[in-house]
Design brief:
Number of helices: 8
Largest sheet: 6 strands, antiparallel
Oligomer: single chain
Number of strands: 6
Radius of gyration: 32 Å
Length: 322
């Protein structure tokens, strides 16, 4: 089928464009091998964030489909209710008498009777017009809901394809990085796995302080691509869980975390601030103070403290609260 062939070609292109090639079999200096591993894991982290974002997009699209479908059902039920009201009013109109002035005049026994009949007909006509108007409005609402549901379903189908494509690319990149990790020397692995001395601080009052205390409490736990805790984390899930512990909801992925709260400059950084790294905004850490940050770095490296500026080039710094 042409559609399947096109999707296969597109998938191959995505993987080829995003997966960093394995180094050649020629011997490399130890430092070069470690650098290759770091580059591979950084790319894997970006693809993991891409995949998580695509999953979020798909979930929201499916939610819109459900809501639009329910709105259509409700509108159709209401239109049937008003349709029945219109039918009842029509049948009950003076047992088939025409709703006009002449009919009222010819069937009236007195002037007072004529006035009363006219008033009753006006009320019935008004009720009937309102019922017709409401019925038409609900039918229009049902039509719009049906269109919205179809549009959302189409978007969800595209998001689902995007999720699948990004998942394949991510898994291949993660596999490449893990293979490279196995080729590292024992001292290199020990260096990566070292947590260093665990840091405790007097966290400030408020939500930022609670979030920081949570993040510091996770020092030593492993990094796993796409993990949501509580026994292992990726960079953005740790930040989300930390602020959730403080009663503050923030998005799951780094791209969206880079938009929360308000931006602050490097010289203004305070405990609890989110520091987003790299031009693609694929990594995040939490400031401990003006010089240190806690973060889930990458696989093979536990949650630990690092110098803010040593983690990578800073893209933005966001103050979630305050």
């Amino acid at each position: 089928m042409p559609g399947r062939a096109a999707r296969t070609t597109a998938l191959a292109a995505v993987i080829a464009a995003t997966v960093v090639s394995m180094p050649s079999a020629h011997a490399q200096p130890a430092d070069d091998a470690l650098k290759v591993y770091n580059d591979l894991t950084r790319e894997a982290e970006k693809l993991s964030q891409d995949h998580l974002k695509a999953q979020g997009d798909l979930s929201r699209a499916n939610g819109i489909v459900v809501a639009a479908t329910e709105a259509e059902k409700k509108a159709l039920a209401e239109s049937e209710q008003f349709r029945g009201q219109v039918d009842t009013l029509t049948e009950a109109t003076f047992e088939g008498a025409r709703l006009n002035d002449l009919s009222a005049f010819l069937t009236s026994s007195s002037q007072q009777d004529f006035l009363e009949r006219m008033q009753a007909m006006n009320i019935i006509a008004a009720d009937q017009n309102e019922a017709v108007s409401r019925m038409n409005a609900t039918l229009a609402a049902a039509t719009k809901a049906r269109t919205d549901a179809a549009t959302a379903a189409s978007a969800a189908e595209k998001f689902a394809a995007d999720v699948s494509t990004r998942k394949v690319a991510m898994e291949q990149q993660v596999s490449t990085a893990r293979t490279k990790y196995q080729s590292l020397s024992a001292p290199q692995k020990q260096t990566l796995a070292s947590t260093g001395p665990k840091v405790t601080v007097n966290a400030p009052a408020g939500a930022a302080g609670v979030a920081l205390t949570f993040a510091l409490g996770e020092q030593g736990k492993p990094y796993v691509f796409g993990s949501n805790g509580p026994n292992s984390w990726d960079c953005s899930s740790l930040m989300q869980a930390a602020y959730r512990a403080a009663g503050v909801s923030i998005p799951r992925v780094t791209y969206d975390q880079a938009k929360v709260g308000r931006g602050v400059g490097r010289g203004e950084v305070a405990p609890g601030d989110l520091i987003i790294y790299y031009a693609g905004q694929s990594h995040v850490a939490m400031a401990v103070d003006g010089t240190r940050a806690v973060h889930a770095s990458t696989e093979g490296v536990p949650v630990k403290i690092a110098n803010i500026d040593s983690i990578g080039p800073i893209s933005v710094i966001r103050r979630v609260v305050g």
